[in-house]
Design goal:
Keywords: Acyltransferase, Plasmid, Transferase, Tricarboxylic acid cycle. About 50% of the residues lie in helices and about 5% in strands. With about 425 residues, the protein is mostly helical. The protein has 2 domains: about 50 residues, Rubrerythrin, domain 2; about 350 residues, Citrate Synthase, domain 1 (Orthogonal Bundle). The model has no long low-confidence stretch (mean pLDDT about 95). It binds s-citryldethia Coenzyme A. S-citryldethia Coenzyme A (SDX) binds next to loops.
């Protein structure tokens, strides 16, 4: 007999089933609530709402735990690589050596984009934000790949998934090259995924380009950290778009658009700009005071999280990676890192942040490393989108393959005007 919760609605006693997952909080299944009571639940921002069942990622916000298909993020980030994480996301298990080699081979051979995509870029101003370009170009992929937009065909879904994972780095590098007026660099099949991306970003036709292994390893780890994160805003956007039957390229474009916001993936760009604005450690106290001032809209970007009420485990790994990269590059006193470390130390001891359980999140340190590698701040969220595409695709596929899936269609609490008669314009005051 499954557990139920009973709620009283007026004189009505309504039993609602309780569902239990593998780990984490139980949920009250309110699917029949409206039918039984004529009422809806009300939860703007979905702070207490589970939108789906999923087997992909688990977060324990209080304990600061993140698992990809059950594996702790710390172990995957330390021992795995990003394409292995993509395989794990898509298929649910770590690949055998043969499966990994086959997956790498298949993804690598989808890295080129249709050459007419180049013409898209000519339509943009050089100073277009690369996220605007990514939203446009990823959505436009569905104009080229008609053979992988039938979502009812599992073979087409897999091809679309591989194409999305494979082509994001190529489009991201093209967006960067276009912004700096340099020619596009084509992918090379003899490079691993992340080295290929670095070469497409930083190589020029005039000389041979050798990928810095420090950058390649650090960026691959950064991609792993950003791969998926349960039902965050952009993933929920992808799921909602996909629930209407929209093609996967359009759904991922919707996810990119949502991720761009400074409250979400855009925070890595905003966090670095904030560190630059603070400038020196002795300015930190002033900005912490601004962040605490209810009348000041300023927030510490890269701090706080809807789920983590403890240190974001990804931020810990990110901080370690930042220190490793800067010291391997011989960068001793990076002023931005000094400000970040000081800011973290002050904030974590401050009553306001302790009481509101505000800790650094993944976006707090990532920008320092990316800037040290040579990426402009405008590319930070593009890199986040590049990595998150594998999570979006895995969550989209899980939703499509769920037999109970139906179009997402929330209701509302209407607080507008009651019914009233139309007044012809000649009779209005
Ligand atoms: C990502 O959901 C995910 O998983 C997202 C993500 C992923 O991998 O997909 O982890 C990626 O988006 C990380 C978050 C990046 N955003 C930022 O770093 C922007 C700065 N942080 C926030 O604006 C905020 O913390 C959110 C948006 C991240 C979370 O906001 P919530 O959960 O809606 O919490 P809230 O805005 O209601 O804040 C609770 C309180 C408020 O004070 P009170 O109204 O209760 O008095 O904490 C305060 C807020 O004012 N607060 C902050 C703060 N964040 C929250 N005060 C100062 N600085 C901050 N950064």
């Amino acid at each position: 007999m499954s557990a139920t919760s009973t709620i009283s609605v007026g004189d009505n006693q309504v039993d609602l089933p309780i569902k239990t997952g593998t780990i984490g909080p139980d949920v009250i299944d309110i699917g029949k609530l409206h039918a039984k009571t004529g009422m809806f639940t009300f939860d703007p921002g979905f702070t207490s709402t589970a939108s789906c069942e999923s087997k992909i990622t688990y977060i324990d916000g209080d304990a600061g735990v993140l698992l990809y298909r059950g594996y702790p993020i710390e172990q995957i980030a330390e021992q795995g690589d990003f394409l292995e994480t993509c395989y794990l996301m898509l298929f649910g298990e770590l690949p055998t050596p043969a499966q990994k080699a086959d997956f790498d081979y298949r993804v690598t051979r989808h890295t080129m984009v249709h050459d007419q995509m180049n013409r898209f870029f000519q339509g943009f101003r050089r100073d277009a934000h690369p996220m605007a370009i990514m939203v446009a170009c990823v959505g436009a992929l569905s104009a080229f790949y008609h053979d992988s937009t039938d979502i009812s065909d599992d073979k087409q879904r897999m091809i679309a998934s591989l194409r999305m994972i494979a082509k994001m780095p190529t489009l991201a590098a093209m967006a960067y090259k276009y912004s700096i007026g340099q020619p596009f660099v084509y992918p090379k099949n003899d490079l691993d995924y992340t080295s290929n991306f670095l070469r497409m970003c930083f190589a020029v036709p005039c000389e041979e380009f050798v990928v810095n292994p420090i950058y390649a390893r650090a960026l691959d780890r950064i991609f792993i950290l950003h791969a998926d994160h349960e039902q965050n805003a952009s993933t929920s956007t992808v799921r909602l778009a996909g629930s209407s039957g929209a093609n996967p390229f359009a759904c991922i474009a919707a996810g990119i658009a949502c991720l761009w916001g400074p409250a979400h993936g855009g925070a890595n760009e905003a966090a670095l700009k904030m560190l630059e604005e603070i400038g020196t450690p002795d300015n930190v106290a002033k900005y912490v005071a601004k962040a605490k001032d209810k009348n000041d809209p300023f927030r510490l970007m890269g701090f706080g999280h809807r789920v983590y009420k403890n240190y974001d485990p990804r931020a810990r790994i990110m901080q370690k990676t930042t220190h490793e990269v800067l010291s391997q590059l011989g960068i001793k006193d990076d002023p931005l890192l000094e400000v970040a470390v000081q800011l973290e130390q002050i904030a974590l001891k401050d009553e306001y942040f302790i009481e509101k359980k505000l800790y650094p999140n993944i976006d707090f340190y990532s920008g320092i490393t990316l800037k040290a590698m040579g990426f402009p701040t405008s590319m930070f969220t593009v890199l986040f989108a590049l990595a998150r595409t594998t999570g979006w695709i895995a969550q989209w596929a899980e939703m499509i393959e769920d037999p109970s899936q139906k179009i997402g269609r929330p209701r509302q609490l209407y607080i507008g005007p009651d019914k009233r008669e139309y007044v012809p314009i000649g009779q209005r005051g």
